[in-house]
Specification:
The chain has about 210 residues and is mainly alpha-helical. The protein has ten helices and five strands; from the N terminus they run H-H-H-E-H-E-E-H-H-E-E-H-H-H-H. Strands 1-4-5 form a three-stranded antiparallel sheet. A two-stranded antiparallel sheet has the order 2-3. A hairpin with a 4-residue loop joins strand 4 and strand 5.
Amino acid sequence: MRLFLKIFVAIILIHIVWNYRSCSYSMLKPIFSERTKMNAVMKVEQNYGAEIDEICEELEAPSEYFKALVLLECSAKKPAQSRYEPNVFKNLKAVREGKRKKYANLTQKDLKRYSEKELTMLATSWGPLQIMGYHVVREGLTIDDLNGEKGLQIAIQWCIATYGKYLEEGDYKNAFHIHNTGKEHPLFWKAKTYDPLYVDKGLIYISSLK
């Protein structure tokens, strides 16, 4: 029992030290200078602020989270650029051809009707929140919907449907991690995001947007 407690305490200490190092490092990055943070806030407010506020008021969602997410995903550029993911295409194609059982819960039955060109679009992320195209397959939507006039609202609704309980609890650490990886933030280890500072950046942006 005493050995178990020692191991548990050691794990907690490692977790605390790691998170402190990660946060401290991100705070020292030039991107988080006061001027840069304020410029980022001004940019997202100018390009997306009013639209996000209106959508989030209607959906009772935290607007500061989605503004921070826009900064993380497309640097608040308007229009946002799409981003093709060749590895996603490879996995989707493998499912369509029966070489893989499923990907992101999509099966061969879901994907067999899509051409190479359409599969490429499904393997691309779209809009200011960079929602992957394959998410439309079971939603009765199209890529045009993600890029249309209601694209941002559709994207925010998808986020709420996917990890809304974390948003309700104000658990933005897990929300950011799920948005980027599809999984909760590891309990004791560093983030699994492509950019290891992705979550830290999001949390700092939120503090500047409140």
